[in-house]
């Protein structure tokens, strides 16, 4: 997970947003440290975590920001979005409400962030298929309509987490190159 002396070609700031308890912090823990915790405490203090990876032979430092428990509508400040080139909009596939709030988060994001920001919609907790409340098709359709990438992930089983980050980071990389 990265040599600290490595030369860095790019730093990309990516923000995680979405309702509380959808799994944002665990998605980040999985990506940054390959860790997962079932009783994750509300995020405190830590603003972002980084992981450096290679994209087309260039080293890209992904600086991933987590909301630190400010998930109430409009509580996330503009400083959080400042300089972000990517965003992950996360809902929980077992909680319909978290998906119904996605248009609000998108509106917030579009109000604060750069207009060229790369956005991926993420339906997390795909391991809980028996409790699914949001059909994949609904989310796919919404993402298509809004021009977002879309994946379902499981931070618990490590399904598609790497893919989700790679999708966003590679798209950003292609835009700046
Ligand atoms: P956040 O508030 O969005 O940061 O959510 P957390 O990352 O703190 O996760 C909230 C709860 O959901 C915790 O109990 C996690 O262990 C659990 N959780 C997160 N991701 C997954 C997942 O992919 N599958 C399952 N089954 N639980 C998850
Ligand atoms: Mg959190």
UniProtKB/TrEMBL annotation:
Keywords: GTP-binding, Lipoprotein, Membrane, Nucleotide-binding, Prenylation. The keyword Transmembrane does not apply. The chain holds residues 6 to 182 of 225 of the full protein. Signal peptide: none annotated. It comes from the Eukaryota. Belongs to the small GTPase superfamily. Rab family. It is found in: Endomembrane system. GO terms for molecular function: GTP binding; GTPase activity. This is Uncharacterized protein. It is a lipid-anchor.
